[in-house]
Amino acid sequence: MTSETLWYANRATGAVCLVLFTVVVLLGIAVRLRGKIPGLPRFGTVSLHRTLSLSATAFLALHIAFAVIDSYVGISVLDVLVPFASDYQPIWLGLGTVALDLMLAVLVTSLLRARIGHRTWRAVHWLAYVSWPVALVHGIGIGTDSGTDWMTWLTVSCVAAVVAAFGIRVAHSARAARRTPAALLRTAEGARP
Amino acid sequence: MTATVSDLHMSPRLLAPGGAPADLTTHEQRYGPLPYGDPAALLRAVAESGLTGRGGAAFPAHRKLAAVAEAGRRTGRAPVVVANGAESEPASRKDRTLLALSPHLVLDGLQVAARAVGAAAAYLAVEEGASYLESALAHRRDPVAVQVVRLPKRFLAGQSSALARFVGGGAALPAHQNPPVRERGVGKAPTLVQNVETLAHLALVARYGAHWFRTAGTPAQPGSALCTVHVPGYELRVVEAPFGMPLGRIVPVDGMSAVLLGGYHGAWIPAAEAAQLPLDATTTGAGVLAALPADRCGLAETARVLRYLALQSAGQCGPCLNGLPRIAAAFQTLAAPGPQGTDRADIARWAGLVEGRGACHHPDGTVRLVRSALTTFTPELDAHARGLCTATDRTPLLPVPQEH
After folding, report:
1. From the CA of A6, how many Å to the nearest CA of chain B?
2. Which residue of B has its CA nearest to A181?
3. At what angle do helices B103-117 and B94-101 cross, to 10 degrees?
4. Selection from B108, B101, B125, B120 nearest residue B202 by Cα
């Protein structure tokens, strides 16, 4: 494979990763809100979230593999896991590495979920909300397509979707925290003369 | 009316006579030394005695002991024993009275239970009187160290999984039933949670054997139980009565319209019917018997209790969190004379929707009280619908803790 082919492949998988991880985050929020995807049974949301996150991980593996194989940019296997250590674009690449490490923590705890217990799994799963924006910034900073129209629109729509979903998620938790027996009793009594 | 109490011709087994707290010397003089038999013989004796839990569920004590001992062997973890003195039921006083009068009998039972299941740690969980119990513990030389735990004043704090969670350092909230506390409770170790009265009986079974235990009560339900008796106009009393005794001999029914049997998760029974019923472990719950005089409104009393129960929901399970406040608010409407709309039908429907759908039995117990009130007080309900209330005295009767 020529360096140019690898460069194209790397950009393509990067963009696919952006889209897939965005969908995975949206589905994750949908699972938490007990949302239903049209055309799927309710448990389909969870299945889809899990399956797509594995597909996204596969694309991420390809994305990293192409970057390491490509000799035009000198990225070693060590640079993949240790952030800010590479000679090539240390900051932007480092952010990608950070995102990968967080993602691996989320992935490994999810695979071992039955073993480590719900509480630990849940605590680590929150890291997904950190991993996604860090990966996004990595893409904007290092991507050679940044600034092109299609990439700008893709990024803007992904950010808009995740910000909106996250807002709904936060509003939902705030509402749930206010639903105490005392508050509900006041409401029920208030509705009567 | 005090005659009903002295009428119980059975010398009390648990409560120190004379109503004075028994210190260790008095306790040892009265009951003799505590023999620690081998665990297998102890479990056999408990099985033969037919002792059941006195916390309200009347679960056979030997089955729980055997299950915890088994879980300990299987997992290789030393079990934990928790003496449940929470008594979060506002109408009950028997555990507090027992702990105040005969603390060493409960502590003996705790050691016997620890011995039977091979426990390495023991706890005594109470809402109040913790320092008194700590000083009682300081006088003893127990093989298993006991730690006194102070519980928050919440209705559900005494639920076994909530108790195990709290003792383990978590919130005093009921947990999912799977895995059960007997498999995985305090610090993930198999945990025996046993009511303090059950432990006191256990200490006596270990001393005097199963045959002695069965000399009180009926063949099907041997032994005796502590009852908290509420009669308006009289001081609240804790009495010990053998199973099978007619309730009419424990609580006076003359001039009464109904009896609340089993506390706030129990049921209202018409007074005439209650007088004939025997003291039964499956209906008496944790032993609360409250008489309702004919000049009081049972609906108003029930509405106050339901409001309290709704506020005491842990708020963890949707049916309980959403259902109990609605039921309580609708019942409030029924408790006042005036138009009832669809409230009776609504309550019956909601009761069916919340029953059996909680991690703990809080919704189930609440529904039991609601249904029994709707049945027992049907004539009163009809009077309220016509805008009348037959009660002349509307001062609150049943104890309900103040809202914070």
Report:
1. 52
2. B311
3. 100
4. B108
With CB atoms and an 8 Å threshold, state whether A181 touches B332. Answer: no
**Are the C-beta atoms of residues B267 and B368 closer than 8 Å to each other?**
yes
Indicate whether this complex's ipTM tops 0.90.
no
Nearest to B284 by CA among B90, B84, B56: B56
Closest to B250 measured CA to CA, from B231, B223, B272, B270: B231
- pLDDT at residue number B4: 40
B329 → closest Cβ in A179, A180, A189: A189
Give dist(CA A130, CA A133) in Å, integer. 6
Confidence at A163, pLDDT banded by 50, 70, 90: very high
d(CA A116, nearest CA chain B) in Å: 13
Burial class, A53, CB count within 10 angstroms (exposed 0-12 / middle 13-18 / buried 19+): buried
Each as own residue / partner, the long-range contacts of residues B59-63 (CB below 8 Å, 24 or more positions apart, any chain) are B61/B194, B61/B198, B61/B201, B61/B202
Beta strands at B121-126 and B80-85: parallel, antiparallel or unpaired? parallel
> What token pair was written down for B49?
């005695």
Is residue A193 very low, low, confident or very high in pLDDT (cuts 50, 70, 90)? low
Cβ separation B307–A180 shorter than 8 A = no
- CA atoms within 13 Å, Cβ hemisphere of B391: 22
Domains of chain B: 9-213 (3.40.50.11540), 299-404 (1.20.1440.230)
Beta bridge pairs of residue B149: B125
Question: d(Cα B127, Cα B153) in Å, to the nearest integer?
Answer: 6
Q: Measured between alpha carbons, how far is A176 from A18 in angstroms, rounded to an integer?
A: 31
pLDDT digits (tens, 9 = 90+) for A56-110: 999 999 999 999 998 788 788 888 889 998 888 889 999 999 999 999 999 999 9
The residues spanned by each domain of chain A are 3-190
CATH architecture of the domain covering A3-190? Up-down Bundle (1.20)
State both tokens at B30.
Answer: 């009265």
Spatial distance between the Cα atoms of A12 and A10, rounded to a whole number of angstroms: 5
**Chain segment B281-323, per-residue pLDDT in tens:** 988 988 999 999 999 999 999 999 999 999 999 999 999 999 9
Q: Residue B295 has which token pair?
A: 């000049």
Q: What is the rounded CA–CA span in Å between residue B83 and residue B188? A: 17
What's the rounded Cα separation, in Å, for the pair A17 and A13?
Answer: 6
Judge whether A120 is closer than 8 Å to chain B, CB to CB: no
Which of B310, B330, B332 is nearest residue A181 as measured by Cβ atoms?
B310
Alpha-carbon distance of B190 to B204, in angstroms, equals 25
Flag residues of chain B having pLDDT under 70.
1-10, 404
